[in-house]
Design goal:
The chain is an alpha/beta fold. 33% of the residues lie in helices and 19% in strands. It has helices at residues 34-39, 50-57, 66-75, 105-111, 123-132, 154-168; strands at residues 11-13, 25-29, 78-82, 84-88, 98-102, 117-121, 139-143.
Length: 170
């Protein structure tokens, strides 16, 4: 039997969720990349479009302040987390994820009953969600990944992500 062996330094863990009692929708990523882990916050890679998109959608001046970013989401009814709680991964690519363990999304959703839709930041998060949580019946929408590795035109990413604003403001 051919077993892959991973050194312990390849173990990575997701951050805790950003959410409160007013959250109406949940955005799920797969698990943080190296730059995010180094900076200890979601989507910290300077070329990741996530925060640029959020600031544009909510007509705010861009800020690199993580507390301000967190408040931007919460003030607009948005929760943020990852499908995977921990895994082995050498790079930041989702294709390198191995030996993954999911976060406890059923408990999270139970604790946040106002969440009515789940948005996936890319196909990988949707794939892992469907693998571990096929029984969760909330409406699910897959958006283009904000990762710089997902090369589609900026305008197309922004337009697809506009649906977030429409849902959260209902």
């Amino acid at each position: 039997m051919n077993r892959e062996i991973y050194p312990s330094d390849l173990s990575i863990y997701s951050f805790g969720p950003i959410a409160d009692a007013h959250s109406k929708l949940l955005i799920l990523g797969s698990i943080p990349g190296k730059e995010s882990l180094k900076m200890n916050f979601y989507y910290a890679h300077p070329q990741n479009a996530f925060w640029k998109i959020m600031f544009i959608l909510y007509n705010q001046s861009y800020s690199a302040d993580n507390e301000f970013r967190k408040e931007l989401l919460l003030q607009n009814g948005i929760a943020l987390w990852d499908v995977i709680g921990n895994c082995k991964r050498e790079s930041s690519l989702d294709t390198d994820i191995r030996m993954e363990n999911p976060n406890d999304l059923p408990a999270f959703l139970f604790a946040h009953p106002g969440i009515s839709k789940i948005f996936f930041n890319g196909k990988a998060s949707a794939k892992y969600f469907n693998k571990y949580f096929p029984h969760i019946s909330l409406e699910k929408i897959v958006l283009p990944s904000t990762s710089p590795a997902h090369a589609i035109k900026w305008e197309k990413k922004l337009e697809a992500w506009r649906e977030i604003k429409d849902i959260a403001q209902r």
